[in-house]
Design brief:
The protein is α+β, with helices and mostly antiparallel strands and 184 residues long. 26% of the residues lie in helices and 27% in strands. It has four helices and ten strands. The strands form two sheets. It has an eight-stranded mixed β-sheet, with helices on one face. A two-stranded antiparallel ribbon has the order 7-8.
């Protein structure tokens, strides 16, 4: 009878990205997607959700991140249907819904571009601990934006689990996505 109580406890999953399970931030969002539909995290229940804050005119970080996630999803094969990548613009002045609709799905047709007004964006960024600031301003519509570059990843139950650092390879991203998919 004493052996019955000695069953090993399952080990928590091992991730390559930063495990932020249980973090007291980044719990939800209310944004409009590039098709004009208002969305919250609950709309994607049952899927692993990756949320990245960036902007269309970004010269390097944003297109690289979207490309890396696209390549990672290719590695998942049919499981990729259970992953939703969301690109939240930190440049609502220039990143119109039409531009988001052209830009974001160019990396993968299932990716969604999301936006909100400038005031709501400030509150959302604060709730996600995301920083962004205009820089290298040459004209009203010619500037860069310095911004946080990590991607928040939720498990299929809608719990925040990972912060994937910028520069993570598609292989690393795919591995962590597979781990999250396997735990659901």
């Amino acid at each position: 009878f004493t052996l019955a109580g000695c069953q090993p406890t399952p080990e928590p999953p091992s991730f390559k990205g930063t495990d932020i399970t249980g973090a007291a931030f980044a719990h939800d969002f209310r944004l409009t997607d590039h098709n004009g539909q208002e969305r919250t995290l609950a709309d994607f229940r049952g899927k692993v959700v990756a949320v990245f804050f960036g902007y269309i005119h970004c010269p390097d970080v944003c297109p690289t991140t979207l490309s890396d996630f696209s390549l990672a999803l290719q590695q998942l094969g049919p499981q990729a249907d259970r992953v939703q990548v969301i690109f939240v613009t930190v440049d609502p002045e220039r990143d119109t819904p039409d531009l988001l609709k052209q830009f974001v799905p160019a990396f993968n047709p299932g990716f969604l571009g999301m936006y909100t007004d400038a005031e709501s964006l400030k509150l959302l960024a604060n709730a996600y601990k995301v920083v962004y600031q205009k820089t290298a301003v040459k004209a009203t519509d010619d500037y860069l934006i310095d911004h946080s570059a990590g991607t928040y990843i939720y498990d299929p139950q809608g719990n925040i689990r990972l912060l994937m650092p910028y520069g993570s390879s598609p292989d690393v991203i795919a591995q962590d996505l597979k781990t999250l998919l396997a735990t659901s």
